[in-house]
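Data card: per-record layout.
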Amino acid sequence: MLQDNKPKVAVNLFKKALKSEPKNVTALYNQGLALNQMRKYQDAITCFDKVIEINPEDSPSYNNRAIAMAELGDTDEALEWYDKAIKADAKYAPAHYNKGVLLDKKLRPDEALKCLDDAIKIEPKKDNPKFYKGIVLGKMKKHEEALNCFQNVYRNNRNHLDAYFQTGIQLAELDRHEQALKVFDSILKRYQKYKDNPHFIYAKSRSLILGLATSASCATSSSGC
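The structure for this 225-residue chain is written out next.
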């Protein structure tokens, strides 16, 4: 039911299972996941705490408890729970990734990159840590490094449209507007729905204007470009 995006139905099923088997850690954990999906974060925390009480080494429960804490606005405590998840299992990549995302939101980019790199080392084939690393690097104005991240993600997964779009964004930030426009045009050919997307319209318009300005400057310059 969780996979079918029916968390409310799933919660009711798990409740029935737990009546006869209250220490069923699988049911408790999945009930917590469903409650997180329903944004009932405090109830989700109760479920994860019960799992941790039964199995103190359950890294996914620490991780998802941290997610609930972050959603409740207690980001400092959430970071502590991500650390507990990592202590329970240093090779549990989602905890490193989620901690990195939260650190970025708390404007601690260097620490965020360290966590994302740890997640990438553990699961090098996963797209999310590499993609988010590109986002952090872009915010830090490290556009060449960000570009490499997005290009690598898209090279390995041609369906990752966000990585392709961000490739265009970083090319534009590097004043490579002609290349950026090729990316944006390629996206538009494949996905007509983006023609009305405000972020897409802004990005393409910006490169059109700045690209023309660069061309005009080169044309009037005695040395050219």
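Known properties of this structure: The radius of gyration is 22 Å. The first helix runs from residue 7 to 20.

See the next section for split statistics.
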